[in-house]
Structure of ABC transporter substrate-binding protein:
Amino acid sequence: MVQEWPVADGFWIPWVVAQKQGFYRKAGIDLKIIPPPNTAATTQYIGTGRADLAFATSMDIVFARSQGAPMVSIARYGTGNNWGLISSPDKPLDFASVKGKTIGTYNDAWSKAQLQIMLDSQGLKLSDVHLVTASSDTVPLLLQKKVDAITGVTNAEGSSLASQGVDDYAMTLAKDHGVPNSPVWVLAANSKWLSGHQDTAQKFMDATIEGLKYAIAHPEEAVDTFLTTYPKAQTREFTTLQWEATSALFGKDVTANSLKQSDADWESLLKAANDYELAKKTDAPSAHFTNELLESK
């Protein structure tokens, strides 16, 4: 299972916990959690069959499928779009005056697409701002005052800032500036592998949901498990805040239904991809996801 980021983060907690608790082993699955060498490699691993499963963004699915890669979303991870531009409380970004500003960002499909749409709402292009690309973390760029704002989500960069004493950061949400309010994160699979391994995929999903439930019910233990597995990944305070914010997206009574997707989740995202020529071509919304693995529980 290839991940969305080269460095381990708290988003991985459900499957790290499921692995530690033996949920995958009991299902006969030997899950290998693979950090990609860079943020662009997640779809490459899935598309070439180097990985069967992935934790990715919904935009990764759109781009991969537009290029003919066999990638499909099998579950959403959270609800809505909490991505945007984050700035310091002592110098909050006035988005109406964003032209010429310096923005720290990542070299992933989601960040570029979202920022392009946001800027278009102001009649601007990516070339109208100065971009500083971070390999794995934009937060130091903001704290060191090297940029005016950074791209990120409330439960990653936002949690990181809060863990370092900056809990009153300013947030300009993308969904308020023309970007679809679609879920950011998804679990995905190589569709060719999926068609031939339905039983294994079902067992993976069931064990993952079991891990998610356990992590929500036992947050401190979940954080301990993550930090024991990846001791150099994040601070305890950051991981605690990140998992607290992430688990809140599911609620305490999480079920398979909590992860189901719909055409509506994808329609606005695909429309934006077409309108802004982010993808060469797009399929129907229903071609981008399946709920088949979420019907048993």
